[in-house]
Design a protein that fits this description.
Number of strands: 6
Number of helices: 0
Mean pLDDT: 78
Strand content: 25-35%
Low-confidence stretches: none
Strand order of the largest sheet: 1-4-5
Distance between the termini: 24 Å
């Protein structure tokens, strides 16, 4: 799935993508002063689109998030995950953040 949000300069925004386990909070004044609005696109990636290291499994959805301008404030992102170690040799969870180079990074 994919969804697009419009962020406005002076407003704070809260977004919950129901069914995808994703919540996003964007504080007010998160855009540069000379920008009134920007687009934020969130895309849920399919497991086949991601290469994992041997012995690793996904425990949550994976999202590609892009913003049309560089934000000036920190955004809170909450991703629901589910993992069970009962029938596994796994002993820990790890979280990965990857940044794709763009004209805004």
């Amino acid at each position: 799935g994919e969804t697009q949000l419009i962020i406005e300069t002076v407003k704070q925004s809260y977004f919950e993508w129901k069914g995808y386990g994703l919540k996003l909070y964007i504080p007010e004044n998160a855009l540069p002063q000379d920008i009134n609005k920007c687009a934020l696109t969130i895309r849920a990636l399919l497991p086949g689109q991601i290469e994992l290291l041997p012995g690793h499994i996904l425990t949550s959805a994976v999202y590609q998030i892009s913003v049309s301008v560089k934000l000036t404030r920190q955004v809170d992102l909450h991703i629901q995950h589910c993992a069970s170690f009962e029938n596994s040799d796994s002993t820990s969870l790890c979280f990965v953040v990857a940044r794709k180079k763009s004209k805004h990074s």
